[in-house]
Amino acid sequence: MISRREWLAGASGLLAARFAEPLLSRPAKAEGAEASLPALATAVPDFSPRHITARMVSLRPYRPEGFRVELETIADRSIVHNIGHGGAGITLSWGTARMAVDRLLALRQPGPVAVLGCGAVGLATAWLLHEAGRAVTIYASEVHPRVTSSVAGASFFPSLVVAGVSRTPEFEERLAAAVRTSHRRFLGLLGRGMGVVRRSHVVLAAERPGGGWVSRLLPELFPPPLEIRDPSLPFAAPWVGIEERLFIETQRYLPALMGAVRKAGMAIQRRTFRDATELGRLRERLIVNCTGMGSVGLFGHADLIPVQGQLTRLQTDSRLNYTLSAPGLYLHPRRDGLLLGGTQDVGVLKPRFDPAAEERILAGMQQLYRPAG
Ligand SMILES: Cc1cc2nc3c(=O)[nH]c(=O)nc-3n(C[C@H](O)[C@H](O)[C@H](O)COP(=O)(O)OP(=O)(O)OC[C@H]3O[C@@H](n4cnc5c(N)ncnc54)[C@H](O)[C@@H]3O)c2cc1C
Fold it and tell me: Taking a C-beta distance cutoff of 8 angstroms, is the pair 279, 74 a contact?
């Protein structure tokens, strides 16, 4: 094992996330986690650039005040906004969809509903409206794989959802409710060919992590990692922990959900709205806005701040049976390859892949492991 000083001076120190939820901020105690955790693979992966198979980049729709689920009336249309999910739109999708649908149903207005947007948030919203017995059409300029939701890894964890100053008890309560609702839905999708999986998640750190606000808010869902001291493991970090997490493999989940939506009789129509006045041409008077960053151009929601994130995909290494995070770095093995990420670039208006960040990530990942052999 390397020392704490060496660790901090190395790549993971350079790559420490710039703001928001630190990946390592969990309290120290962990109970009852051991029984269900399988033995971790001891193989050392090869992060050479020659194994790169794909690069992806997109903008997270971050709203410092947290997600927004609110009714607005424009002319004769009732519009419920369901936006501002930041780095956790997959995690929150079913929860804020529930809130948006409840808000819409509370209007007690009959008739079909238009859902704008076909990312994870729009699809979950459409599904819940269908469950409530409404006729639904999804309108979207893009669908999987050309939406931000397709780029997400995606770990079930509420990261980058609200600025510290806006974390009021009221917002925390809504966030916790949304996460719990989503969690129940995703648990129900486990093992059903939807790309929802439960994995061992390795946490690497310079020292035992302190308590984070997410763990305090939702201790039953995000208990602290259990420290492990096993010399056969390949990690080079001074502190190694393990926990269980849900992962949503969006390359499987989104097509499966779109298939289910179509099979249930809902249409997905490709259509771009340039501004809110164009909504007047829709036959539906009830609308749910799930356009993510698109909401800036469409409704003038300038409080949405784009936070760019990028992923590098390497050839699959079937030996790896865990996901992993360290400060500013994460690794998600999926069927289609190893996803590497960890960037958060605030205020980038047009997504652009950063090769220098990729280089740092590849080097940083390699340094998380002891040299092979
Ligand atoms: C690198 C990266 C990693 C991430 N990791 C995670 C993670 O681990 N866990 C997690 O929970 N989240 C993660 N996220 C965040 C997550 O991807 C977003 O929060 C989520 O995708 C937002 O979903 P959405 O449905 O609101 O938006 P989108 O997926 O962007 O969908 C928006 C939809 O609206 C449509 N639209 C937009 N404007 C218009 C218009 N004018 N007219 C018609 N249609 C329009 C689009 O075409 C699209 O269909 C990550 C994001 C990135 C970039």
Answer: yes
Q: Which CATH class is domain 62-152+251-305?
A: alpha beta
* Ranges under pLDDT 70 in the chain: 1-38, 373
Beta-strand relationship, 322-326 and 68-74: unpaired
Nearest CA owner, ligand 1 atom 51: 152
The pLDDT assigned to 9 comes to: 44
Of 91, 142, 183, the residue with max ligand 1 atoms within 8 A of its CB, to mutate for a pocket test, comes to 142
Distance CA 235, CA 228 (A): 11
- The DSSP result for 272-297, as a single string, is --SSGGGGGGSS-SEEEE--TTHHHH
Residue 344's φ and ψ, nearest 5 degrees, are: -140, 95
Q: Under DSSP, is residue 213 helix (H, G, I), strand (E, B) or coil?
A: helix
148 lines ligand 1 (CB under 6 A): yes
Residue-wise pLDDT for 127-141, tens only, equals 999 999 999 999 999
In this structure, is the dihedral angle defined by the CA atoms of residues 251, 225, 206 and 344, taken in order, positive or negative?
Answer: positive
Angstrom distance (rounded) from CA 174 to CA 282: 31
- Residue 21: how many other CB atoms lie within 10 Å: 20
CA dihedral (189, 190, 191, 193) positive or negative = positive
**Three-state DSSP state, 178:** helix
Instruction: Enumerate the β-bridge partners of residue 332.
Output: 339
What pTM did the predictor assign? 0.91
**CA pair distance 260, 254, nearest whole angstrom:** 10
Q: Whose alpha carbon is nearest atom 25 of ligand 1?
A: 119
Strand partners, 68: 83
What is the C-alpha separation between 209 and 206, in angstroms, rounded?
8
Q: Tell me the C-alpha distance between 272 and 126, whole Å.
A: 18
Q: Report the distance separating Cα 342 and Cα 17, nearest Å.
A: 7
